[in-house]
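Thread: assembly with ligand

MN 10:42: here's the input set. Chains plus the small molecule as SMILES. Want everything predicted jointly, not piecewise.
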Amino acid sequence: MNDHAPRPASDTPVTVIGLGSMGQAIAAAFVGGGHPTTVWNRTASKADALVSKGAVLAKTPAEAIEAGGLVVVCVLDRGSAQEILGPVTDQLAGRSLLMLTSLTPTEANETSAWAAEKNIEFLGGAIMATPDLIGNPEEASLLYAGSSAVFESHKAALELLGTSTYLGDVAARASLLETGLLASMYSMFTGFFHGAALVGTEGITAKEFTALAVPWLKAMTTFLPGQAEFIDKGDYTTDVQSLEFNKGGLDHIIHISEDQGIGTSVMKPVAELIDRQIDQGHGPDSLARMIEGIKNPKA
Ligand SMILES: NC(=O)c1ccc[n+]([C@@H]2O[C@H](COP(=O)([O-])OP(=O)(O)OC[C@H]3O[C@@H](n4cnc5c(N)ncnc54)[C@H](OP(=O)(O)O)[C@@H]3O)[C@@H](O)[C@H]2O)c1
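BT 11:07: finished. Tokens for the full assembly:
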């Protein structure tokens, strides 16, 4: 190969700072993909297994940064990332920094602004996976926001971790989207728990319930794109599934739950969101209008 020929992506040296359970999985995926991989961790012994597979253990964060075309930081939180990176900003200048440490949207934007000031190319990421799923594109999804140059030039390496989605140059977006997905997940689980508690009052097991709940919930997800259309247009006019129609259903669920002697703390806030919109005269509108009460808790 001559000096000017493009190098295969797996030649790109990568550095992983932070070898907790997630950092170790990330570094292992890079090593497995053939990337020269340098690692650093406060507790050096956590690098042993990676070193036996070919990773190089740096003695200091500065040494680790010098080795990497892409520097990935995956430590506990923003505070620990700052402790590590604060003293080595000179080494980071001109380099690509991928922050896979979980940050809030505000922290991500502040970190992005700090990086811009220090001439560091910054990409933020959110990991929608547990460490055991890293390296499996069907199960691990990673959301990225920040420098498109970092994302594009290291896409092949990032694909080794899981499916990659780039969300634009505002760093907060990755963390915000992650939080939105988690909020959807917790609400779905909580609704499922309410249903399981309800059917359990007549001896139906959670397993029996699940056999019907899984296809039901899957079928319901087909309505999400339609709901999204109402939300994005801000026009909730409909002739099906109005708030008034759904109020009947919710009142029914609350009434039956009380009759069966279980709590209503999951369903009552849902009914309240519907009632608030109806009280404001929006009864004929789509159920999607509930989002207005979430966006503005006083509305
Ligand atoms: N695990 C998951 O399922 C998961 C999923 C999505 C996102 N994440 C995110 O990934 C990041 C890492 O998570 P993890 O599961 O790998 O956590 P972890 O297993 O608890 O590891 C924490 C890492 O942070 C380092 N650390 C903590 N405080 C430090 C300090 N003051 N100075 C230097 N290093 C410090 C630890 O070093 P020592 O080894 O020396 O203690 C270790 O490398 C977190 O932001 C987490 O939210 C994790």
